[in-house]
Amino acid sequence: MNIIVCIKQVPDTTEVRIDPETNTLIRSGVQCIINPFDMYAIEEGLRLKDKFEARVTVITMGPPQAEEALREAISLGADEAILVSDRLFAGSDTWATSYTLSKAIQKIKDYSLVICGKQAIDGDTAQVGPGISAHLDIPQITYVKKIEEMCFNSTENGERSESRATHSRDSYIKAERMTEEGYEIIESPLPCLITVVKEINEPRLPSLKGKMKAKSAGIKKWEAKDLDVDPDLIGLNGSPTKVVKIFTPPPRKGGQILQGDPEEVSEKLVDLLKGEIP
Amino acid sequence: MDYLLTEEQIMIRDLARQIATEKIKPVAAKYDIEGIFPWDIVKVMGDSDLFGIYIEEKYGGTGGGVMELVLATEELSKACGGISLSLAATALGTFPIILFGTEEQKHKYLPDLARGKKLAAFALTEAGAGSDAAAVATTAEKKGDYYLLNGTKQWITNGGEAEVYTVVASVDRSKGARGAATFIVEKGTEGFEFGKKEDKMGIRASATSELIFSDCKIPKENLLGREGMGFIVAMKTFDQSRPGVAAQALGIAQGALDLTVQYVKERKQFGKSISSFQGVQFMLADMATEIEAARALIYATARMTDSGAKKISKESAMAKLFASDMAMKVTTDCVQLFGGYGYMRDYPIEKFMRDAKITQIYEGTNQIQRGVIASSLIKEKAA
Amino acid sequence: MCVGVCPFAAIKVVDKKAVIDLDKCTLCGACIEECKFDAIVLTKISPSGIDFSKKIEGHKDVWVFCEQKNAVIQSISYELLGKGRELADLLGVDLCGILLGEGMKDEAKKVIHRGANKVYYVDSPKLKHYQDEPYSKVLVRLIKEYRPEVVLCGATSIGRSLISRVAIGIHAGLTADCTGLDIDREKRLLLQTRPAFGGNIMATIVCPNHWPQMATVRHKVMKEAEVNNHHKGKVIERGFDEEVYSSRTKLLDIVEEIEETVNLTEADIVVSGGRGLQKAENFKLVEDLAKVIGGAVGASRASVDAGWKSYSHQVGQTGKTVCPKIYIACGISGQIQHLVGMQSSDIIVAINKDPHAPIFNVATYGIVGDLFEILPELTEQFKVALKK
User: Fold this and answer.
1) Cβ(A220)–Cβ(A60) under 8 Å?
2) Distance between CA B375 and CA C243 in Å, rounded?
């Protein structure tokens, strides 16, 4: 069974601060990390690998430095890594990104499951995962907090159909999808795409042997010319959404500090708030 | 300071740091208060291959030595000097096998130890044999194919939790120090029980227990080296492990200093941050300098040990002596700088002081270390 | 300076000139605003730049996808209708609701009462509960047939899964989690403003060449449309072939997990505890206050990581985003990853013993003091004040 995990290298936004004097980002020294939700995706892929003796391929679309993220994934246990990178992809919005990634996945051809993190912490859109499944026209289960069952059977004669993996009718995945009120249990045939939430697992730490393997691992690099992409649908040009303005939000004004001993400040606060409380 | 670490050493250091920050720090206070053995951390370290960093690749390790162990122990100790012992004390119990084991013994025991699947412990100390190690009274009576062990070991780190014990016992008491031998004893062997688990001042997340041997049958294949070599095994083991204890002390001191620098920046008195007072600054400068000096001495000693140098007793004793005395002074001063908060158990700094003390005592008291250094000096001069 | 503003560390200053590393640059444009010398210009790869000349042919009306659960229209829909009405009026077009479900024709009238001129309603037992494929197929059909110019959808677990899939099917631009929506009347475009970078940057986005222009909005960001039972409109019922309602995935069960108190994201009042509480047992102080003032209990990441509260209570970047009327942060320092999850609350109260805690920069009312003394006092006083 082949599993594909889509990851993104992002700046560590938890380390980003606003300079209170200039009201701009203090970004010096900010590390690039694997998007936290993607760590859960990688971990889930690795757990399935342990359980089903599957193969995990990690793929990312990004600038050349995104290779670091792929190596980190290998140090955790991923079998193969692919970097989809080209100047022509720069400026992609979520439509163009999911399009490009879906083309890369189509090139990989043989897969049972695509796992994505719920959202990336820099864009925070949560659109790429479902976008990929739409481009690939495969079913999706979003916000997966637990994979209950997975059954993988290849077709009897192992024939390949078009661009799909060889799955017999009874290959499926059954998962818990998190909702605001609790969760749903959804079953889907394979191949399928899932996006995962933090509740699903506890990501492992890399091992030394893994890190050493990652240092010398070969990373496949695919450019626009290697993929079957329509040049009008990639990069800035292929992005239906365009950014017209970037600005730092007006700082939320700090209010007043209430003074006094615990009894006094409590009295003041209760006075100020009691009208707002039903 | 840049100590020109290799890529692999940096990897080990960074991984240990990651484990210290993400896994150990959140639980350190709780495990200390409740005296909980950190099996969950042991699993994380084992899965990350951290237990094999001083073990050869052919036995399942990653092929490093004392330097790698020092780097990892230092990082882990910054977060908790007690939890780091699960690794450091295992290394202590494993060195006898590495240094004196036969191929069969190494292949039998090292792989599980390298994976963190089993922990090890070194058992020398007894109620009547502390600094006077030669006064060991645990006996090993040879009975053909096996030895019968009788006696009690005291204050053994990882005692009760470890599976593999390297135990020093006397085969022939009339020969004194030359009558001892070291054996590998596995947990669960008939006649091998655990006594009291000690309630300690510090390093409370590590287990310290009595080992009780009553007619414990040990197959002769478990003898390490030869009869009579018992103390040589012990001394050579300590030569290897002293940088590790020193690294533990170093980590504790560094962890304490890091917290203290943060605190003095935040604490305001007389209208300003106390970090602006020269008195405080001088203390910080002295502590940082002592720590760096200890670090340089430990790393140099570790590298020298790994290079295969034959005579390392003096240097390794110096590293242990200096680092542990330094750690006690630094952590005491750190508590002082925290003022009243330093004395309160609700604040994390007092733990560092409690943890530091043991490093001046175990694996050879600092008085013994001084003796080792002095006799080394005198021997050199005589020659 | 531009160097400090670039989120991707792509700018270095060499010989007093800013040099942009094009390998790292993602063309986000954050530096353009910042440069005092106007030295940075974002030239599009396409020679024509953003082409605003394409006229919107035959696309009309503002649509709001009305989310329903258990045949009840969710409040997010009413919030979108409120904003949608504003946008429709600026564009001079109709506001239409889209409702999918079973046996909800009467419910559909509620959408009219909230300002919609029309409701397109599709009824099928297969649409009773949300599923990705049937819903997205129906929505794609409707959009292709009626050609709206704007589609708004809630940024909920349903909305986000649905509309991302739909956007692909109709090749439309989609902007997530908009906090501001406006119309550029001259260009007849939807201006979509949203936070990025954990809320540190705001971006305004347009879709100049693709229609409909689609946006999702989070719960509680917009105000609900007022109820006007006299408002008139049409409910237009549509049906499609069974194939359209088919789904490869199967919904086997729906499990509701009752939160011990008020649902955190729905709550109007949230009282949160952080590292300053020091121990799990001390959360009781937070819970007591929450109970008295009718609030939900939140937790910072530090306290969840320490095991004091379960993850379902976590507020912040990797937790929940809340937008209550009152947010009381107890013993929470206010690091950016927490602020991101609650900074749009109406009133923020911070209680912390450290006067320099960043939380005070965003708090409407701050109390510098010992929460162990203040919380019980506050709880007592509220008890008295609210009983009156």
Assistant:
1) no
2) 92
Residues of C with CB under 8 A from a CB of B: 278, 305-306, 354, 356
Strands C72-73 vs C68-69: parallel, antiparallel or unpaired: antiparallel
Helix, strand, coil: what percent of chain B each, to 5?
Answer: 60, 15, 25
Q: What single letter denotes the amino acid at residue C103?
A: G
Clarify whether B56 is annotated catalytic. Answer: no
- Helix (H, G, I), strand (E, B), or coil: what is residue B213? strand
Answer yes or no: is B2 within a domain. Answer: no
The DSSP H or E segment spanning A246 is strand A242-247
Query: In this structure, what CATH number is given to the domain that contains residue C186?
Result: 3.40.50.620
- Structural domains of chain A, with CATH: 2-233 (3.40.50.620)
Nearest CA in chain B to A206: B48
Q: Which domain holds residue B159?
A: 121-230
Q: What is the pLDDT along chain C (388 residues), one digit of tens a residue?
A: 677 666 666 777 777 777 777 666 666 666 765 666 666 665 544 333 466 666 667 788 999 999 999 999 999 999 999 999 999 999 999 999 999 999 999 999 999 999 999 999 999 999 999 999 999 999 999 999 999 999 999 998 899 999 999 999 999 999 998 988 999 988 889 999 987 766 667 889 999 989 999 999 987 778 889 999 999 999 999 999 999 999 999 999 999 876 554 578 778 899 999 999 988 899 999 999 999 998 899 999 889 877 888 877 888 876 777 878 899 999 999 887 788 788 878 899 999 998 888 899 889 999 999 999 999 999 999 988 887 5
Domain of C282, CATH number, reads 3.40.50.1220
Q: What is the pTM of this model?
A: 0.82
ipTM score assigned to the predicted complex: 0.84
Residue of chain B minimizing CA distance to C308? B26
Residue B224 is assigned to a structural domain of this protein: yes
Is C198 in contact with A124 (Cβ distance < 8 A)?
yes
**Are the Cβ atoms of A265 and C374 closer than 8 angstroms?**
yes
